[in-house]
Amino acid sequence: MSPKVGVEPIRQAQIIEAALLLIARHGSHSVSIQSVATKAGLSKGAVLHYYPTKEALFAAVFQEFFHRIFEQSKEIMARHDDPLEKIRSFGDWLFDETTPVAKIGYPLYLECMSRAAHEELFHQLFHEWVNNWVELLRGAIEEGIRKGVFSNVNPEETARALSAVCQGIASRWYLNREGHPAQWARETLRTYAEGVLKRG
């Protein structure tokens, strides 16, 4: 599903950015190759030259989105020396209503989940993203164990549980912010993380 060889990086980025914004705003089922081309200021043929099908284009969009989220998560967590603060900062960023993640990221995340339930390509993309996220959290957990800050938990299992709890909190917050405000989301994640990880 990769774009054809010889693509121009700037034009390819235009297409991805246009599709990303349209999918976040309208959902992938309402987005066409023509609408992406119009948004990008290109012809339909130009888009099809790089991405011959909607599925190829949408897969590239989700890959780019997940890459951005992963890299930004690593950057934010790396600012902290305390392993627990790394995990806390991750949650604080996810539940910040002023960031592009809240405005664009969550619609894309939910859109990919929806397609992953029925289409193998998107299921694989989502699975890879979850594994990357688990790996990131596992690194912070292993560091906390080495430093004696965390209990001697199983890093892999705990990272998977923590990522699942975080995803659940994030979905509840995004879809019902009045009933589950950002402060609730941050405190709930912190309470869970501290309860599971901190030494008694």
Automatic annotation (TrEMBL):
InterPro entries on file? BetI_C (IPR039538), Homeodomain-like_sf (IPR009057), HTH_TetR (IPR001647), Tet_transcr_reg_TetR-rel_C_sf (IPR036271)
The HTH tetR-type domain, residue ranges: 9-69
**GO MF annotations, alphabetized:** DNA binding
Domain of life, per the record?
Bacteria
Q: Does the keyword Repressor apply?
A: yes
Q: Which keywords fit this entry according to its UniProt record?
A: DNA-binding, Repressor, Transcription, Transcription regulation
Q: Which residues bind DNA?
A: 32-51
- The protein here is known as TetR/AcrR family transcriptional regulator
- The scientific name of the source species is Candidatus Abyssobacteria bacterium SURF_17
Taxonomic path: Bacteria, Pseudomonadati, Candidatus Hydrogenedentota, Candidatus Abyssobacteria
